[in-house]
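Researcher: Next entry in the queue.
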Amino acid sequence: MTETLRTLFALDKNIELFVQYLPQMVIIFALISFGGWVYETIYCSVVEGEFTKRGFLFGPTCPIYGIGALAVWLVLGQISNPLIVFIIGGFLATVIEYSTGLFLERRFKKKWWDYSMFKFNLHGRICPQASAVFGAFSVTSVFVLVPAMLNILMLFSRHTISVMAFIVVTLYFLDTVASLLWNGPTTHHKVEAAAQDASLRIEEAAHNASHQVDAMAQSASQKVSAAAQNASQKANEAAQKANAAAQKANAAAQTATLLATQKAKEVSQKVQVTKQKFDNTTQKVKDHLPDSFPWDN
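Model: Structure for this entry, 297 residues:
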């Protein structure tokens, strides 16, 4: 226990080591932050049933994991007892998480995580379950992650590591500025107002379009109805004219038939009269002729 306390208060060695390998520490911070982002994104996406991007920054990173890992390694890196690292590391990570959550909520009026569903949580910012995970993460960081990453990065030249660290710091700086501006109260309210205004305009446009479509449909229906009525009326008139023409044709046919019949009767009567006259004339001629002629002998 005395050795542990002596190690805790001997931070100058750890700080000296941290400063000596500062470029490597920057890259380790970025890698662990990325790993934390992957872990939280997968976990929350599975729990919520859809893809859920985690973190305050735009990029794929959760800096609290990188800060927590380096802070635990900086404070507890010289302790060889995993249980002590688990307890103190979980406590330190919990303090960092609570402070970060409180700052983000008060500054941006928004919660980035909520442990209210877990028992014994404190204001939804921390809970024993998360602290236990952070304790295990502390042990992993102190004894595995940070030493292994530091050994791998030592294989590169200091110039290469410095350039990589500079790029990482630049990207984090730009991402932090953009995220602060975007998530700030003024920008946030402007975006919400713009979104509400756009939503109202879309609803108004949809309403107007619906009204215009209804009016056009009603007008088209009236025109179609009028055209149908007009066509029906014209069809009725044409049918009436056709019926009248048929009646006239029937009357004309009947009249023609009657006239033809009468003419035929008259002709027949005249033929009979002519025949009768012919027969009478023939008889008279026969009566005036002698019974025989000389040439008959």
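Model: The CA atoms of residues 97 and 126 lie 7 Å apart.
Researcher: Noted, moving on.
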